[in-house]
């Protein structure tokens, strides 16, 4: 049940928004093995002149994904970061290397959806 927020400083367009959402949904389901039907993606555009890296304005992005702690391996997370960066680079062209992807691992008792925590869902799945 990931929640994903992507901020980027390119000209706002529905086409780019849709492609970004497709990239993160595809990588989240195939690399991190998350369910598409409970993956939430928010894509936000900010003016390029409001975002600087090293005091200069470059094309950049920030992807923040929240997942349940302990549900993915280090290898899966590393592959996710690598693939998302590569896919964004192919879509956006030259981007600053200081474009960040952060995977936040949240304890299962600290978040959920449909009014139930992830820990509760896990425990319920183990009860026969």
From TrEMBL:
Keywords: Isomerase. Residues 2-56, 62-116 form the 4-oxalocrotonate tautomerase-like domain. GO terms for molecular function: isomerase activity. SUPFAM superfamilies: Tautomerase/MIF. Belongs to the 4-oxalocrotonate tautomerase family. This is 4-oxalocrotonate tautomerase family enzyme. It comes from Arcobacter suis CECT 7833.
């Amino acid at each position: 049940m990931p929640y994903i927020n992507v901020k980027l400083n390119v000209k706002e367009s529905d086409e780019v928004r849709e492609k970004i959402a497709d990239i993160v949904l595809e990588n989240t389901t195939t690399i991190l093995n998350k369910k598409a039907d409970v993956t939430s993606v928010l894509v936000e555009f900010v003016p390029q002149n409001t975002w600087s890296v090293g005091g200069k304005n470059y094309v950049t992005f920030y992807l923040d994904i929240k997942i349940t702690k302990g549900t993915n391996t280090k290898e899966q997370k590393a592959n996710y970061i690598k693939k998302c960066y590569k896919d964004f680079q192919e879509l956006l062209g030259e981007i600053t290397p200081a474009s960040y992807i952060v995977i936040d691992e949240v304890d299962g008792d600290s978040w959920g959806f449909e009014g139930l925590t992830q820990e509760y869902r896990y425990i319920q799945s183990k009860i026969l």
